[in-house]
Amino acid sequence: MKAFLMIILPPLVLLPLLGIDDEEPDIGRTAYMMGIMAAYWTSEALPIAVTSLLPVVMLPLMGVLPAEHVCQQYFKDNNFLFFGGLVVAASLEAVHMHQRIALRVLLLFGTRPHQLLFGFMVGTAFLSMWMNNTATTAMMMPIAEAVLGQLESIAESDGASTTNARLIKYLGKALMLGVAWAANIGGMATLTGTGPNIVLAGGYDALFPESEPLSFATWIGFAAPISALLVLAAWAMLMLAYVPRSTRQACGRSCSSRSLCLICAPPHLRRSSLCATALTVPDLDRRCYVHIQRARTHA
């Protein structure tokens, strides 16, 4: 009943919008349609995809635009470019490629707090170059939470003090913010990284039809270096704000590469100890052992 009311009420409540401008009736009609779509999207009274197709029906019905002109807007080059980016993102998620990339990056950069933070931010930014920012964040957050859970369990088993527990909590804040920031920054690097980039490219082509269009190579050529610098700046800010210098030494023993493999590996790899061992980097194990001994000596 509630869903039915949410479908019926917006068109009735928004009827006064049709008369807001007698000289230009198309303005009121367009505002009426936009109000209905906003209400349906907000309440989800109709599926989002169905609501997005309302202009195909309403604009010709109200005499604002012919149907052929409205339908052409759904099949522009930039729209299909964005659609292709979504297909790539779905493919990466289906084969657990995001988990594999995150695992490799973490193993590459190391297991100290500043290395973990940098590894997560680099991995998230790289994924966000090819996927939607929100989807990348949603994929990386569970991995970050799993690593934090491993840190907390190791701290509890070692009888860590309240100070160390608080430091791990600060590291958790840095990881959560780092993943979110890196997803936004990485989306700037490529034309398909986020929706506004494609909208800008379409607007540029419309405003300057005689100029050379913004290609993928042109965009990544100027945006990727800026994105890399912003990732470094964001990492430095989070390090200064949430990861004190003492934490970088005290938490060196937190995770071994084998633990990271078991945490971040896809489920079908987790079931195979052979695969998990193959993903382990022996040299990183030795470095972690050295960090453990140094941390214990320092303590």
TrEMBL record:
Top-rank taxon, per record: Eukaryota
Residues that span the membrane, as ranges: 45-67, 79-96, 116-132, 174-199, 219-243
InterPro entries, per database record: Cit_transptr-like_dom
The keyword Membrane belongs to this UniProt entry's keyword annotation: yes
Signal sequence coordinates: 1-19
Domain Citrate transporter-like: 39-238
Keywords assigned: Membrane, Signal, Transmembrane, Transmembrane helix, Transport
Compartment annotation: Membrane
Topological category with respect to the lipid bilayer: Multi-pass membrane protein
Gene Ontology CC annotations of this record: plasma membrane
Primary location recorded for the protein, binned into one broad class: membrane
GO molecular function terms listed in the Swiss-Prot or TrEMBL record: transmembrane transporter activity
The protein's name: Citrate transporter-like domain-containing protein
Lineage of source species: Eukaryota, Haptista, Haptophyta, Prymnesiophyceae, Isochrysidales
